[in-house]
Amino acid sequence: MSLLVVGLSHRSAPVSVLERAALAADARAKLLHDTLATEPAAEAAVLATCNRIELYADVDKFHAGVAELSTLLARHTGIGLEELTPYLYVHYEDRAVHHLFSVACGLDSMVVGEGQILGQIKDALALGQELHTAGRLLNDLFQQALRVGKRAHSETGIDKAGQSLVTFGLEQLADGAPVQEWARGKRALIIGAGSMSSLAAATLARAGVAELAVANRTLERARRLALALTEPGGPGAAGLTASAVPMADVAAELAQADIVVSCTGATGLVLTVESVLSALTERLAATAEAQALPGGDVRAEYVRGGDDTDPERGQGDDCPLGLADDARRSAPLLHLLDLAMPRDVDAAAHRVEYVRLVDIESLAEASADAPMAADVDRVRAIVADEVEAFGAAQRAAHITPTVVALRTMAADLVASEITRLDGRLPDLDDKERAEITQTVRRVVDKLLHAPTVRVKQLAATPGGAGYADALRELFDLDPQAVAAVSRADTRSDRQNTARERA
Q1: For 358-408, what is each residue's pLDDT tens digit?
Q2: What are the φ/ψ torsions at residue 208 (nearest 5 degrees)?
Q3: Which of 113, 259, 379, 432 has its CA 20 to 30 A from that of 191?
Q4: Same domain, yes or no: 210 and 344
Q5: Is the peptide bond before 342 cis (omega within 30 degrees of 0)?
Q6: Within this chain, do residues 360 and 307 fall inside the same structural domain, yes or no?
Q7: Whole-angstrom distance between the N-terminal and C-terminal Cα of the chain?
Q8: pLDDT at 459 (0 to 100)
Q9: Which residues are catalytic?
Q10: Vertex 159: Cα angle to 156 and 160 (nearest 5)
Q11: What is the 3-state secondary structure (H, E, C) of 403-449?
């Protein structure tokens, strides 16, 4: 069996495709079950983030595996295979290991060096363990990836090469100003209560926002997050007011917010351009500037221009949802950070007057020119070393069942010969019999020691997989006996994993 990964990410596909390929939690579970139901795959794990979806599998046939995993991704994302295929990448064996280790270190992230990917890899492993789709290979692979990622962050300055997506996004919103100064005293709205939203809430709380509201479909989760921000020892500065609100109140909160961060698992838009315009209208109506305008309606007076190429958006000043001209933008009153995939905020909000929107697509454009830290080279060296070590360990582990089966066969032969000796020399006392038995075992152990140790060393080298076959052939080992050892090891691994998680 061999490791195969098929996937797409921000490096291979545009955001419009990644949005359509996003998978909810229940869809990931179904994808894993369907992957194991296919003939080429014995194990499976799926790594899904806001800017990547990758399907890992232990397969026995490369071409059949690629075809099957590609078809499964197309089926479960709802994107036609012909349309999806140009955006897919394939990595096999050591290259697949190298890819995941690079991802774990943040080398393949939109923001180089960001550490959130480690939590996402941990979640992918936990799901595979929970559904029993991750066996020995993928358990070893993902656990080692987590260790490699932690090593990269502890031994190098990769963190300085980039920030988390949240921090990077807030820096883009601040447009060059220090986030601590830009956010201080503002009112923030967080939509969603998952890991990304929690990080955004904590970051803004530390930056000194005066008020923070958390909106979530499950109000209790929003309450827990709001409470964690203000409790003693929490990230919130003194005087921070944090509250939880139901999703039905988002429109009202939007009209009062200066900063909005949205990262939900919704499949449709959470904030439409109409809701953004309504919030601005309400907000501007309360300002002295708005009082000087007839009706204070942002739709007619504050949003000008139009996108002549988009018939759905209308044209010119006659369109009630007209779009602002980039050449005459005013200072933003509403800052929107959309970290969801698929997107939570209507992309048309990019062109609305008094609004600054940063989303995954604009983050990708901003990060493309970001300077790379010198530590990146050190991390690449770590990844290369760890890939080689992982490959050697896997190759050595591959021969272990064969060695165990060989020693088991030898022990059975010793026991059989001692039994035969008892029949031929029935007058042996227990002491004599024990001495003979021990002598025969020592002889057998000494004869097997050198070849079994050497074969493990050779198996760890590139191309060493054939030594297991040679050992089975030379000693005429029963393939079923070797397979039985492998199955026993797999059961033991799963039991150990279950105990560790418990």
Answers
A1: 998 888 777 665 545 567 889 999 999 999 889 888 777 777 778 788 888
A2: 100, 25
A3: 113
A4: yes
A5: yes
A6: yes
A7: 30
A8: 72
A9: 50
A10: 95
A11: HHHHHHHHHHHHHHHHHHHHHHCCCCCHHHHHHHHHHHHHHHHHHHH
